[in-house]
Amino acid sequence: MDYRQMEYFQRAARLRNITRAARELNVSQPSVTVAVHRLEEELGVPLLDRSQKQIALTPEGQVFLERTDDILGRLRDLAAEMKDFRFARKGRIRIGITPVIGAYFFPALLARFRKVHPRVEADVIEEGSLSLSEKLSGGDLDLAMMVTSRISSHFDTAPVAKGQLLACFSRRNPLARFRALPFSRLRDQPFIMFHEDTYSRRLVMDECARNRFVPRVVFSSSQIETIMGMVSRGVGVSFMLDTIVARYPGVVGRPLTRPLLIEAGLAWNRDRYLSRSARLLVDLFLEDMGG
Fold it and tell me: Which residue has the higher pLDDT, 56 or 290?
């Protein structure tokens, strides 16, 4: 059993797909398949159930994944800590941002940080809050600027904004006459949504279920401009933070009678080693936010 085998198994187990795991690891599919098979042979138990279209963890595989997450996480923490000793004022931060929160609050923070710490490099990925939360838990990210509502108890956070999702539609939509909108009024409207890895989409889908209807989602995107452009042209309705809607004059935003509230902030996993470079960014963020 070696680090590479455990890493390949971990990625395949998380994604429930060998092909996607190989793609993310930048290796061939047979490499992942062979690594997992050799683990199973060495351990003497099956780790993956391959009887269905999508692979699943066996009971033994679930236990092994939990132990693997812990072991690989500690090894990555150790490597990061040793790099801190080696590079002193140099460093690298792995940061995740969401399409909405990151786009509006992160650029100014990164620009200021780069000015103060020009030798620290930042690797930035843009995904939804649900995906970023998984990556923070697994140690694949140091920090994430994301929705922090209902966040894991293992995360520490520094708040950046609070707001509510507004129902958004074109000025020609008859719903524009409402000052506040009952969610049930949206039942027959086509929905334009962020992708499934976003917290806002989950919040909206939960509200649909509470109102006992399944929305007709006609388009999904990770881009604010694309979504708001389609809304302004009457393609469908969407949901956006109140602080953002005002920037789009062709779109009407109305609060819901039962508000969908969102908190956002900078998050990090307190159970993982936080590199010196990442701590410097957190400190700068807290300074900027007055905390």
Answer: 56
Kindly indicate the confidence band of residue 88, based on its pLDDT and cuts at 50, 70 and 90: very low
* Domain range 3-70, CATH architecture: Orthogonal Bundle (1.10)
Domain parsing of the chain, residue ranges: 3-70, 84-160+264-288, 161-262
**What is the pTM assigned to this prediction?**
0.69
Q: Which CATH class is domain 161-262?
A: alpha beta
Confidence category of residue 212, pLDDT binned at 50, 70, 90: very high
CA angle, 218 then 202 then 228, to 5°: 45
